[in-house]
C-alpha cells in the first residue's frame, strides 16, 4: 500500500470523494486529495507541491504544467467533458431555444446574467465564447455579472439575485432552486475538457494504478453521477 | 447654604459625614486619607455614595432616598482637583475657555484677563499642559474652575503645589471670592495656615467622620482638634499707613497705636488689614521696657477661653480692633487674666508677614 | 504612465479608491459608536455584539459575502425593503463598499476601543464638573483623546478595503466600472496562465496607494501625539 | 455529537485550532517587537517597515498566498535554504500557520502599538530611576501596561487565523489533515451542489469557537483593566 | 558631594544652573515654574540638558562635553516625583519591592518594615494605587525611593500633598537620613518651613538661574532671598524632659534653664531637640516680669548680622545652645545690641510646635 496525493479542481469535490473511497477500498493505497482552483493548484505544482496527480478543470493550466516539464510523459489524458447550460431561477422556468435567434437581452429584461469571470475562469471564458459565437454578447455584455467561480454564479441565480446564469451542467444538476432552460451547442465554444496527468517524481506504481482507476468503470460511474461526461477509454 | 450628609464604604474605609457649609469658605480639614477627596467627589457628582443627601440652597443635588442624583454637569460646582486634570489636547487658553463656554450666559463671572493676571499664567496661554510645571498646572486648573461661573467652588488642596509667594498671591483671591463674590467655597486643605487664613467655617474630618465643625474662631481655639494649626489662629487689625521709615520699616496707625511692620509697598494713608497670629502675641500687665519688640497695643480683655490642653485663648479689644492671644493656662493663672483686665499686647513686627497684609479696609472697625 | 495600465485597470483603481474611501468613511460613525458602547456601556447583549463584530474576521470571506447576499441582496431580508426606499446594494459599487466596510469593521472597532479604554476617565469627569453635558464631554474630550485609535482604525479599515476580495466578489460579483475593484482585477489576471505580470502592476499600484495612506496617517498621528503629549 | 460532523470535518476543526493557536502564539513576540519598534524607535526604514506590516491587509489574500508560495515554497527564495535546515512550510500545517500569522500580523501590531502609545512614559522613567535597566523596565512595566493591546491583538489575530482562507489555500493548498482548515473545508463544500448545509455546520463550529475566545479575552481584559484601574 | 552644572532651554524658558550639594540635605528652593523640576529631571537622567556636567562623589553621571550620559538606572538616584508615579498595575507592596529588587545586594538600606511603619502605609500594602488618596500615594512613592538604596535621594516636593501631622512624622525621617544614613538628599521645596527645618544647604532658583546658594543659616538670614521664609529661621536647643505638669505643660531643662512646652509624650529624662524660630524670640536686656510668656533664657550675644532689609539676625549662646533671634534693625539699635552683650531671650512656650521636637540628643552641646 502506498500513499499518493491528488490535486484536483474544486468542482470535482463530490466525485473525488466517491472515487477516493472506492479506490482505497480496492487497492489499500491511501489517497490524499487537495481541492482548490485549477490555477492555484497548477502554480503550487510548478512551485514544487508534493502532488502525484493533477486533474485540472481546463487544458490551459495543464498545458502550463506540462510546459514546465512536470507532467510525466504519456500520462496525460482528457478525462472528462462538461456542458455549458443556461439556467434560470425557480423551478418552472420555460425552456429557451439556444441559438443565434434567441433574444437573451430581452429575456433578461433589467435582470442580470450570472457567469464566472469571463476573462479568467474557464466557465466564464467558454460562456463568453459561446455568447459571442451566437451573436448575443454585445447585447448582454452590460448585464453580465461575473463571479470568481461557477458555484458563486449558480448561487446568484439560486438566490434569485440574477434571473439567468451560465454554468456547467454538472453544477446545475443538483441545485434545487434553478432550472436548466437550455444547453449551449457543443460547437458554440471550445470543448470543455478536464485533463488528468501523472506528475514527475519517483516511479511509483500507485500513481499509475490511480490513473488507471480514474479511467475505469467505477470512476466513470462516479463522474457521471455528478453530471460529467467521461472521455477516457 | 450647602447641606451634606453622606455615607459610603470602600473596602477598609467608611465615610459617614454630615455637615453644612453656611457660605463663605468652609474648610474641610483632615489628615491624609481621612476622606476629604471622597467627600469632594461625592459633592461633584463623580461618586454616588451608598446613601446621602446634598442640597445647595434650594436645589437638591442628591437624595439617594428619593432617587435624585443630578449629573455632574447640572450641579455646576467648579471643581479644582488635587491632580490638576487639565485637558492634555487643549492649550492653556482653551482649557480656560472650556468652563467659561458652558457657564450660563447670565452668570456673574470673573473676567478672564483678571483671572489670568492674578494667577500669573499670561505667558503660558499658548502652551499645552505637558509643558507646564506642577504649580503652573494647578494655577491653570484654578483659573478654569473660576471661569466656569460655578454656584459653589470645590477646591481640593488647590494650593498644595504652589510656593508660598504664589500662595500669598492667590489666597487673597479666595478671600475676595468669599467676601465679595459670595460664591460659597468648599476648600479641602491640610495646611493649618490656609485654614486659619481662609476658613469661615471649619469641618474637621478624621477617619471618614466629622469630628468637629463650627465657626472658624471656635474651632481654631481648640488645640485638641488642630494640633498643628493652633499657632496660626489670629485676628485681623485695621490700620493705615503712616510713613515709610528709611530703616526698612513701615509705620502704621492701628486705631491710635503706632505699629511697625516690614516695609510694604502701599502709599501713605492707604488702609490695611493685618493678620496677627494669636501665638505671636505676648501679654503683660505693665508696660514693658527694654524689649526688642517694637509693637505694643493697649487693650482690655474681653474673653478668656481655656482650651482642652495647656492653652488658653484670650481675646482683647484694642484701638485697632479685636486681637487674639494664645497663652498657656499657667500664664493666664499667674498673670490673673480675666475679662475687664487691662493689658499690653506685645507683637513682634516681623511676625506680620507680607502675605497677611491685605489692602483694603477692615470690616471690623 | 497611463499606458502602463490599460483603461480597464485604471477604472479598477479609481473604483477601489472610491469604494475604500466610502467604506471607511461610512463605517466610522458606526465604528466609533460600537467601540464606545463596548468600551463603556454594560448592556444586555453586549457580549453578543462583541462577538458579532468579530464575525467578519472569523468567517471565510466567501461566507460573509454569501450572508451579505442573503441579507442585502434584491430578495434579501433587508435588501428587499431597502430597495423599496431606493437603497440598493446588490451589484452596485455601494455593495462593494458595504462588503469592504463590514470586513474592516472588526479592525476599526478594536483600534478605537483600545483608545477609548486608555482615556483617563478623570478628565471626562473634570469636563462634566465644568458644566459639559455627556454629549459635549464626548465631543470635546473623549473624541479628541481617542483620535489615535480613530486614526489607526481608519487606516486599517482603508487598507482592508483596498485588499478585500472574497466577500466583495461573492456579494456583488465583478462588474467592470461598478464592482470591479483592484483585487478582483488581480484575481482575474491570476486565473489565467501568464497573467502574473499584469497582476503585479495592479499590486504595485495598490501597494503604492496604501503606502501613501499609511504615511499620511503616520504624519497625522505624530501631530495628534505631539498635541496630546506636548510640544 | 461527533456524528453531527464527519471525521474529516472534525479533523479540519482540530487543525484550524492548532493552526490558529500557533499562528497567534508564534507571531506574538514578533508582533510585540514590531509594535514597540514602530511606537518608540526612530530608525531608517521605519516607514517602510510600517508599510510592510500593512501589506497583508492591502493585498488580496490570493496575492499574499502567491507571494508566500514564491518565497517559502520548496523552490522559494527562503523556502529552499530553510528546507536545508529542516524547516519546511510548503504544504505543511506550519505553512498554514505562517499564512494565518502573516494575515493577522497587521491587526496584532496595530493593537499592541496603540497600547504602547497610551503608556505614560513617566512611569517607565520612574522605573529607570529605581535602578531598572531598559530590558527590566520593559518586562516589569511596559509589558504589563500594554497587556490590553496584547490581548486585543491576540484575539484579533486568532479570529483572523480562524477565518483565513485565500492566502492559505493559495500557499499550502487544501490537504486533508495537513492544511485543510475550517475555511478551506467550507470552501470545498461550497464548490459542490448541496454542500451548503455541511458548510454551515462548520461555520457554526467556527463561530462558536471564536465566540468562546472573544468571551475569554473579554474576561481576561476585565481583569487586566481592574488591575490597572483599581479594585 | 554632588556637583551640578546645567544649561537647557525650552521655548520661553532657559535654565542655567550651577551648584554643589556638599552632603546632608540640599534644598532647591524657588517659585513655581522657576526650574526646580527641570533640574531634578536632568539629575535623574530623564532629560539630557543641552550642556552640562553632573558629578556625584567620584562618579561622572553626565558630561555633555565628553559625551558621557549615564542612563537613569545606572545613576541610582532615588527619585520622588511631584506626581507620585506609582506603578498602577502593582500593589503598594509590589511598588515598594520594585526599587528594592534592583538595589545592589550589599547596599546599606532601610528595613522595609521600618519604612512602612514610618510612612503609615501598613494597611495599604495590598491595594493598588488607584485606591489610594493623594497623600497616601505620595507616601508610598517616598517609601519606594527609600527602599531602592539610592546613592542620592532626589525629592521633588515630596510632602506637598501631606497634612501637617504626617509631614511632622516624615520630616524627622529625612532629618535622620541626613544625620545618620548620610545619603545626600536633594530636596525640592517651596515650603519655607520645610526649608528651614531640613536644609543643610540652600540653593535658591529663580527663573532658571541660581540666585543664592550657601549654608542654610546664611541663606536663611537673608530676607531678600526668602521673603516668605524668614520667619522660619531658627536654632536647635538641646534639652531634657524634667516633668509633666498637670496643667498640660511639660517642663524641660535646656542647659540649666527650665523651659515650658506643650505636653509631649516622652519619658522624664529623655533628651529632646527643640527648634526655636528666630522670629519667636524677643530679646530684652533686663529680666522682665509680668509677662505672659513663660520661657526665658539668659545668654550672651555672639553675633549681630544685619540683613538687607529692616531685619537683623542676632545669635546668642545660652545654656541650652546657640539661639537665633530675628529683630528689626531699629530694635538692635535701640537696645544697643552687640557681640558680648548679655540679654534675656523670651520664647513663648506654645511656639515650640510638636513637629519641632525631635527625640534624640542634639549635636550642638
Ligand atoms: N516641555 C516643556 N516645554 C516648554 N516649557 C517647559 C517644558 N517643561 C517645563 N517648561 C517650563 O520650564 C519652566 C520650569 O519648569 P519646572 O517644572 O522645572 O518648574 P518648577 O520649578 O518645578 O515649578 P513647580 O514648583 O511649579 O513644580 C516652567 O516655566 C515651565 O513652564
Ligand atoms: N477606590 C478606592 N477603594 C478603596 N479605598 C479607597 C478608594 N479611594 C479612596 N480610598 C480610601 O479612602 C480613604 C479616603 O480617601 P480620600 O482620597 O478621600 O482621602 P483624603 O482625605 O482626600 O486624603 P489626602 O489628603 O491624602 O488626599 C483613604 O483611606 C483611601 O485609601
Ligand atoms: O473547478 Mo475550478 O478551477 O474552481 O473552475
Ligand atoms: Mg485627597
Ligand atoms: Mg516642579
Overall geometric form of chain C: globular
Bound molecules: adenosine-5'-triphosphate, molybdate ion, magnesium ion
Radius of gyration over C-alpha positions of chain C, nearest whole angstrom: 20 Å
Distance between the termini of chain C: 42 Å
Helix count from the secondary structure assignment of chain C? 11
Summarize the structure.
Chain A has 233 residues and is α/β, with parallel strands linked by helices. Helix content of chain A is 37%, strand content 24%.
Q: How would you characterize the overall build of this protein?
A:
The complex is a heteropentamer, with 1 copy of chain A (233 residues), 2 copies of chain B (365 residues) and 2 copies of chain C (231 residues). Helices cover 37% and strands 24% of the residues of chain A. Chain A is built from 10 helices and 11 strands. Chain A has helices at residues 13-27, 38-46, 59-67, 104-108, 122-133, 137-140, 150-158, 169-172, 205-215, 217-225, and strands at 3-9, 30-36, 53-55, 77-82, 84-89, 113-116, 144-147, 164-168, 178-183, 192-198, 229-230. The mean pLDDT of chain A is 90. With 365 residues, chain B is of the alpha+beta class. In chain B, 23% of the residues lie in helices and 37% in strands. Chain B is built from 9 helices and 21 strands. Chain B has helices at residues 36-44, 72-75, 92-102, 112-119, 134-147, 164-181, 192-198, 216-220, 329-335, and strands at residues 2-10, 13-21, 25-30, 51-56, 59-63, 68-69, 77-80, 152-156, 185-189, 201-206, 209-215, 234-244, 249-254, 257-262, 271-277, 281-284, 295-306, 311-318, 321-328, 342-347, 357-359. In chain B, helix 3 packs parallel to helix 5 and helix 4 packs antiparallel against helix 5. Chain B is globular, with a radius of gyration of 22 Å. Chain C has a single domain (7-230), classed as Orthogonal Bundle (MetI-like fold). Helix content of chain C is 77%, strand content 0%. Chain C has helices at residues 7-40, 46-58, 61-72, 79-84, 93-117, 121-129, 134-145, 147-163, 166-172, 182-191, 196-229. The longest helix of chain C has 34 residues, at 7-40. The N and C termini of chain C lie far apart (42 Å). Classes of the chains: A alpha/beta (233), B alpha+beta (365), C mainly alpha (231). At the B-E interface, helix 1, helix 5, helix 6, strand 16 and strand 19 of B face helix 1, helix 5, helix 6, strand 16 and strand 19 of E. The complex binds adenosine-5'-triphosphate (2 copies), molybdate ion and magnesium ion (MG) (2 copies). The site of one magnesium ion has 4 residues of chain B, from helix 1. Chains C, D: Residues 13-215 form the ABC transmembrane type-1 domain. Chains C, D: InterPro entries: MetI-like, MetI-like_sf, ModB_ABC. Chains C, D: It comes from Fulvimarina endophytica. Chains C, D: One of its GO terms (molecular function) is molybdate ion transmembrane transporter activity. Chains C, D: Part of the binding-protein-dependent transport system for molybdenum; probably responsible for the translocation of the substrate across the membrane.
